[in-house]
Amino acid sequence: MAKPCRDLTAILRCRGFPARVRLGSGAPRLRHAAATEAIRQAGGRTGWRPIARGTLLPALHGIPAARAATRRDAPGTGDEALERSDGAIAMLGFGPFSLDLRRQELRCGDTIVHVEPQVFDLLVHLIRHRDRVVSKDELLDAIWHGRIVSEAALSSRINAARKAIGDDGESQRLIRTVHKRGFRFVGDVTEMPDAEAAGEATPPPESAAQPTPHDAPPLRPARGGRPSIVVLPFASPGAEADAAYFSYGLTEDIVRMLARFRWLDVLSRHSGAPFRDREVDPREIGTALGVRYIVQGSVWRLGRRARITADLVCAETARQLWSEAFDFSLDDLLSVQRSMAEQIAATIEPELARLEREAAVRRPPRHFDAWDFYQRGLFHLWGFTVPGMEQAEAMFRRAIEVDPGFARAHGGLSYVHLQSAILRPAADRAALLEAALVEARIAVSLDAEDSMNLCVLGRAHTFLRDYPEAIARLEQAVRINPSFAQGWYALGFTFIFCGREEEAIACIERATDLSPRDPHLASFHAMRALAHFFLDDFDSAAELARQGARVPNAKFWPHAVLAAALGLLGRMEEAARAVAELLRLHPAYSIEAARGDFFFCPDHPCVERFIEGLRRAGVPDHSPAAG
Questions:
Q1: pLDDT for 64-85, tens place per residue?
Q2: Are 580 and 610 in contact (CB under 8 A)?
Q3: Which of 76, 209, 344, 550 has the highest CB neighbour count under 10 A?
Q4: Is the pTM of this model over 0.70?
Q5: Cβ proximity of 288 and 218 under 8 Å
Q6: Sheet holding 89-94: strands in order across?
Q7: Domains and CATH numbers, the chain
Q8: Would you give the distance in Å from CA 490 to the centre of its chain?
């Protein structure tokens, strides 16, 4: 019989189990039976459905959606005892280091040691439980709050924690690996009381009996490091039953879709439940949950139609950062629920990425950690200039120095090499593409579930003309995260040069629908125009190229496609204007340069047709700047 999923414990945990379910490591039939019994004990109906060849997923019908299933759910565990004592402990000291629990800072003497929030949380958890071995499963629960992540991610955080406190994997002076069991902190620790907390009055019993949003323990304050976000339950003011069910499911789907963007820390749906139908200041929510951003919204029923409003709010300032409304028919509620969740998640992600890049640029360098260096790298990368690539490369390398296991930094460095292969002289191209492939493979080896890393690896294979491998990696990226607009665009880009133009158009249209304000929107339009050009649909190509040229940050490429299409259409006055604008943006552009731009494309009659269109439009054979 087919075997259960490799990590059934994690799957059951994510579906709301109130306690850990140990399935053991026996034969598949025994593990299947153990999982079935666990489902029955939770009050659900058994049943399994295939999700991949040889793999079964428990259906989990009827299991109540309980609170987040971390160790906090089991009474009497170490975490519960620690939660009771947190108010009396302000600092944990060991050797020259100290962990400030209120400020969430690691210090060596008087110097702040910058670590990512997850590394800080990992150190705190290990030190609090230093009297025993902490298993990998427990760390995954405590640090990632039920999200399914690879063991490579945990290993990366362990290595970063050791490095931050002057330890390493060989000596293991402070963080010791216990083979096949987990980790243990073995240093001498001093617990320092919190004078401020000690002076606080004990709350009266009646206030403790009234649950409020503050009952949830703060995860961490909204500060530097990887951004965290919570999706509050979408309101359904009309109170119709189906609207209420829809808003409940929509909230859950948005959480799930956002969680696929692995650079975000996304809190579980249950984290926002205490704030349902309450008017609460976003800053209060941010403090209670330790998040930087909040997604909130509502579902309004209007007969057989409905409207969803969604807002992105800064939890630190209560400022509204983004808002959108979506109108749809209720004819196919489940299909609409999924598509709306994908749309909202895909629209929010680039907005958050932009905000994080801008925040990193404003932050003083002395406060930088690996995440800040990474964000600064992205800021310089998206300018697509040679000086910008040099600065981006320096930032990504700094991020890797701080955290060698930071997969995204390796992915960013790979992308720099790919773009440099386009921008730099052809003589440098082979070495740059090889370097890009190496870094992309490292990124995927560190985190094979990050769609961005897979996308960069796929693009590296595209530029090396290994189209089958490129398509496999890019399809994997959008399968992991269907809301990933860049993945759909990269897949469409590759299809164009494989003679699969119709599929390319569909993929790039999907990218445009998912992210209509994407910073790469001009490229989306230009590549869709090129796909129509290769299909000899020059009118559509010209129209789409014009759309790309109108985007405020558009580079020269949409103008090149426009000029080629108009040249073959014989609309010479318009073609002349397009060429003039093309040469204004790229003074060195020529027929020779255009051929170089297709270095990743094998000899292709469509490329020759494109070159002919440029020549008819009036693009010179050689660079005017060189002359």
A1: 333 233 333 333 333 333 333 3
A2: no
A3: 344
A4: no
A5: yes
A6: 111-113, 105-108, 97-100, 89-94, 190-193
A7: 3-58 (no CATH), 74-195 (1.10.10.10), 218-356 (3.40.50.10610), 363-481 (1.25.40.10), 520-627 (1.25.40.10)
A8: 16
